[in-house]
Amino acid sequence: MSADSATDSSIETDTATGESDRYGPDDGVLVVDGLTKRFGGLVAVDDLSFAVEKREILGFIGPNGAGKSTTFNCITGVYPPTEGTVYYDGQDVTNSAFHRMVQNGMARTFQEFRPLEDRSVVDNIQISLVPDRLFSTSGLRGRTRAKAVELCERVGLGGRLHQAPDELPHADMIRLELGRALATDPDVLLVDEPFAGLAEEDIAEISTLLRNLRDQGTTFIVVDHNMRGLLQLIDRAIVINFGERIADGTPEEITEDPAVRKAYLGSED
Amino acid sequence: MGAETSEAPASDEEFEERTLAEIMDPREFGWPTRLGLVGLATLAVLPVLRGYGFLGIVVNSQLLTNITGAMFFAVFAMSWDMQSGYTGEISFGHGLFFGVGGYASAILQTQLGMDLLVTIPLGMVAAAVAGLLIGFPSLRLQGPYFSLITLVTPIILIGLFTFAPDITGGATGLFTEPLTSGAVEGYVIALVLFLGSLGLFLAITRSDAGIVLTAIREDELAVEAAGLNPAKFKLFSFVLSGLVGGLAGALFVHTYAGGFVAPSDLLALVISIEVIIASILGGIGTITGAAIGGLFLFLFRAYIAQVDLTVPVVGVPINEIYFLLFTVATLVVLFFVPEGVVTRILMRARRRADTEDDDEGPDVAADGGWTEGEPTTLERIVAKFVRELRELTGDRGDDL
Q1: Distance between CA atoms of A264 and B353, rounded to whole angstroms?
Q2: Nearest-CB residue to B209 (from A102, A134, A181)
Q3: pTM
Q4: In 3D, which of B175, B170, B158 has the Cα closest to residue B98?
Q5: Which of A164, B199, B221, B345 sits a CA distance of 20 to 30 A from A47?
Q6: Complex ipTM, two decimals?
Q7: What would the pLDDT profile of B42-94 be if each residue is shown by its tens digit?
């Protein structure tokens, strides 16, 4: 690849954290160190390292197939990384089960929506409020119901409580994904492609929602290949391509970066 | 806001916290629930009405015995529905639990001379242990593997029994002590088991566990994303199902079967399949559907086998081809009522209640329910099975 030489130089100039570019457990609320994921011969994520500060909105940018969703899957324990370490809250959580990560305060949304098609919007959100105990009757009484309704209203689904997921327009499916993730009361929320296929006003509205939640203490990592919407939302971005980090910095720095321009912006849409 | 229609807040009842007394208030019940309670009350008083006749049906020992068997069979069906109907992990060999429960109790009694009041609970525990041993490794696998393992284990067990015919009775069966002698005692035991199982399963499936189990049927990854451990809930429902199925099997042997335990009564593949058919006919994933389907199916089979008529042209007595008639009847019901009889009734009742209230737009069924036009629970389970099978054969549609 001709982009490789540019990639190498940008890492050295941009990150300047020494030769090894290693991160320790206390460098942020979520630290990924040397993450590698291989599927057979395919290297989806290649020695990726980054740290997420508390209460920031980190953009995770890269073209389609760059390894963003795979990175999410490895961080959240949907599948184990081939190599590397994930630290959350100072603890090594590599290979933790997905549901355990969620219980520890890390939620995520899915790029391919995963609603429970057999139940209404409010019931979809309610599932995230159910405790992970075999014997629990909180749902029988109205308390979790009221909370689920409140969450629906917070993400803008107040008028669609009783609709089935397959009746929802695209933007509301994203709201439903967000609502289900928020219902787990996360400290860190990984949002996969929130802006895909959305109109400007929906992007603005979801951005406002995320910023408000950040102000209340939630940390966000947002993946999107829609740079325009994302750059207005985020505090800082990491750009990856072919599973490797090619740049990081503020939105301004990112847009100026020659490697990013070459690898990404040129090929947008 | 994107919502073009109703911006009105949801009805107030959603914000109210309900007390347990309000939930149990019979005045709040719909007519299907009331009808069900009347049915249960009828079952409860039936032994007292011995000797009387209604609508041409005389309450005699034969009827009581048939209903006793039907209640056992309904418990078998419910135990299947508790596990397979709710999680969508289809067990093709639930007879294993009934068999392990029945045989463990019978063998302990005949070999060690233990009291039935000890061996029956031990049979129940043995079935639960069997559930743990099979469920722990196999429920971590994809659904089709689980189904295959459950299909094979009772067959293996029957095979093992033939190696030790002195202890197990081999293929013919084993005589042990009966717990009761009269029809009424057996009936009462079956009734207590039936009501207890129904209450237990309803309580669990209508609590939060039911929400999780049905969600597992829909999408396990989504369940994990909600911070819930699907493996734990699946194993729980399987072991619980085994526990109740084992108890029912043990009690069945020592009451209805008169102390005789045979592979064909409990372990055979036919039993496992009949249990599934009963649940499907009644309505999969509802518990009540399995209960009613189980009762009906057993009685239907018992009575059709007694019919003393001959099919005119062919000259075949009906009681010789009852299994054929039974399967044809099953297919007919399945064709016209694919979602199950109980599910259909509940849907009709809810729709009527909805039009009476007429306050909200299109509503989606809450728990175990079904709305017309949606895929039925059976279709969802089959779709899950096919999806998992496709993943196993290497056709992965995951995004990277």
Answers
A1: 57
A2: A134
A3: 0.84
A4: B158
A5: B221
A6: 0.84
A7: 888 888 877 777 776 777 888 889 999 999 999 999 999 999 999 999 999 99
